[in-house]
Amino acid sequence: MNLQALIETAQAMVADGKGLLAMDESPGTCNRRFEALGIAPSAEMRRAYRELLLSTPELGSCISGVILCDETFGQATAEGTTFVQLARDAGLLVGIKVDTGAKALALRSGEKVTEGLDGLRERLLAYVETGASFAKWRAVIAVNAVDGGHLPSAACIAANAQALARYAALCQEAGLVPIIEPEVLMTGTHTLAHCQAVTEALLREVFEALTLQGVALEALILKPNMVIAGLAAPTQNTADEVADATLQCLRRVVPAAVPGIAFLSGGQSGELASSRLNALHLRPRAPWPLSFSFARALQHPALDIWAGQDANRAAAQKALMHRARCNRVALRGEYSAAMEAQ
Fold it and tell me: Please, are residues 290 and 258 in contact by the beta-carbon 8 Å criterion?
């Protein structure tokens, strides 16, 4: 492991007021979104959509890197240029999602643990040889049980923290920067205060596990949820309240050695995600660079416009760049709703 090279890569991922474009949805997830818009759920249409995203002009002015799924990592443009090379030619770092999805946690109704550790060492080495610079592993934590019980359990938090730590150690061993993504889901009626308590407990356990596994904290990126009330909660908090709770949570449990935090968007709209990201940058300076690693909040306007039609390609790319620029401006605390009318 070349620790200095890993540190430099991690720093580059959150440098220069840029963020990450997460486009690592599984084929199944991508197909469901296609079907909702009347797009054929085929490998060719997925390839065409990924090419649209990666070939967007000036994408590198706002985006430092892209996260791909295994299918996309092996695909190429219509002209034959691999997507990995297309991204690198645009000045983007290339990342790869390496978990195999969240599965039911045994004896824990309504809870999940992310799998994919079997054979991971060999898979990581293959990704490095093909041009990957970083990887991603997502853990999903539900707050409200379907039967009204209390979630998450300590067992669920511990299982996911241990998996994240083992993944991170394997990544650094292979020469990849690990993105650590422990996500407290937005679904449910929980309050902002409850989300904060769960997020703090989760992150505390994650960093204890990372330390136990010997992971270099200086060579990873944390990708957490913002602290937000559940989507079905009767009270939806302001962007300022979200920012205050999120920063208080992170200051309590995230070591200053971490080189950057790139927030996930979860179920937020593009406008809400940008507004809350902006509010975070109106607070006193945090110990770490605060950036973004959005999927739906960046992609969805482009996907809606494209709708599977090549004639809509340029307009879809323009929509993607608009969202990317809104988020880059938010990293300076200069975003406003008025930008959405431009």
Answer: no
- Residue 287 CB partners (closer than 8 Å, separation 6+): 251, 254, 256
* C-alpha–C-alpha distance, residues 295 and 280, integer Å: 19
Q: Over range 265-271, report the average pLDDT.
A: 91
pLDDT band of 149, cuts 50, 70, 90 = low
Domain encompassing residue 150: 3-341
pTM: 0.95
- In the block, tokens 């004896």 appear at 107
Q: CB of 208 within 8 A of CB of 163?
A: no
CATH assignment of the domain containing 227: 3.20.20.70
CB count within 10 Å of CB 156 equals 21
| Residue 117 and residue 167 in contact, taking contact as beta carbons nearer than 8 Å | yes
104 - beta bridge partners?
Answer: 112
Number of domains, the chain: 1
What is the predicted pLDDT for the residue at 341?
82
Q: Which one is catalytic: 18, 136, 223, 318?
A: 223
Rounded to whole angstroms, how far apart are CA atoms 66 and 8? 17
Residue 168 in tokens: 């991170």
Residue 214, number of CB atoms within 10 A of its CB: 11
Whole-number Å distance between alpha carbons of 55 and 135 = 21
CA distance 1 to 169: 10
Those residues whose C-beta lies under 8 Å from the C-beta of residue 187, and which sit 6 or more positions away, are 142, 143, 144, 230, 231, 232, 267
Is 112 an active-site residue?
A: no
Q: How confident is the model at residue 248 (pLDDT cuts 50, 70, 90)?
A: very high
Ramachandran region, residue 151 (left: φ > 0; alpha: ψ -120 to 50; beta: rest): beta
User: Tokens 């818009």 sit at which residue?
Assistant: 37
Query: Cβ contacts of residue 317 below 8 Å, gap of 6+?
Result: 52, 55, 56, 57, 302
List 284's β-bridge partners, or say none.
none
